[in-house]
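Notebook, bench 3.
Goal today: get a predicted structure for Acetylornithine/succinyldiaminopimelate aminotransferase from Xenorhabdus anantnagensis so we can plan the truncation constructs. The sequence was checked against the plasmid map this morning, with no discrepancies at the termini. Length recorded as 405 residues. Pasting the sequence as submitted so the record is complete.
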Amino acid sequence: MLENKAINRNTYDQVMLPIYAPANFIPVRGQGSRLWDQQGKEYVDFAGGIAVLALGHCHPALVSVLKQQSEKLWHISNIFTNEPALTLAQKLIDATFAQKVFFANSGAEANEAAFKLARRYAITRHHPNKTQIIAFHQAFHGRTFFTVSVGGQPKYAEGFGPKPADIVHVPFNDLDAVRAVINDRTCAVVLEPIQGEGGVTPATMEFLHGVRELCDKHQALLIFDEVQSGVGRTGKLYAYQHYDVQPDILTTAKALGGGFPISAMLTTDAIAAAMETGAHGTTYGGNPLACTVGCAALDIINTPEVLMGVEKRHDMVIQALEKIDQKYGIFHEFRGKGLLIGAVLKAEYQGKAKEILQQAAEQGLMLLSAGDSILRFTPSLIISEDEITEGMMRLDMAISRWLNK
Ligand SMILES: *Cc1c(COP(=O)(O)O)cnc(C)c1O
């Protein structure tokens, strides 16, 4: 193995496929909402591994069950089932509209399964030509070829040859636009109740209720991609529970394993019945190690203490941002729900989010953007008051430095 000190940011450029542009420092250790890099510099973590680390880094309860399970059974394949997978499936069913669960390893895989299921259901239960999928501009559903094609940023799907067909995109939160394209050939409408990557844009109440009605009218399935908005992120276990609109299929990933890769697709008995043995599958999906961590994460997150704490932390973050804005006047608006928050830069700072992130890292703060003009906050759901205060002081400093550069 290479010596630690032989590994640095330059190594990345030498050995990695050049699809990311990671920050200049390399984190080596994390605890709660704090991280340390190779040089021992400390960071406050407002990024949370992109809405994954719902309980922060190395939560003791997750570490403990991971250690225990690692001495019992890691992997068994789906030729055999396992107790942790069945336990986690039951917990998800008890907590949601769902009656059936499929496990995979990433958000994209859960969505891939959802889209295949919707097509299969429409084709077998209705008509072979009922294959149209309606999706939204700015939507993000993952990077497999099907999911990236359903996503609403064409630049990510182009340049790879012929795309999966029969997908249409319309503006988000525009019910008339959905009404104009939906028809009896529509098999599914796919949306994020709160668009994450696309700019932290919550669906409006009228929009979600309207889309549900249109789906029912045309016998199309409604798929909610809650890969980012789910697992307590918005202060309810799933964001749909704020809207009182039930999907037919829901996908969940990111925070589901608290940092351990796992995803799930949830649906009803009637829809699940469109799939038979052999119709879909995965080698790692539902492995005991991931499901054990998922169970422990869900047991902690799906409690009034944690979920109610999200709302309190939301208010703290917004108040701190408002204070920063009073000083520097750089924000146009704040939006989002719970701890999925977007701070939209004013028009004159358009395209500058990355520069602010760089300054923030220098000040010891890890932060995300959504697009190039929105700062995105997706910290741990149990980040402490002190950590929020400290992180916001560093953000204040970063913005001050950046403006005076
Ligand atoms: C992150 C994300 C995905 C993709 O998940 P991966 O685990 O990267 O495949 C899909 N949908 C939404 C809404 C996401 O935020």
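The two ends are 42 Å apart (CA to CA). The pocket of pyridoxal-5'-phosphate is lined by residues 106-108, 111, 140-142, 192, 196-197, 225, 227-228, 253-254 (CB under 6 Å).
Flagging this for group meeting.
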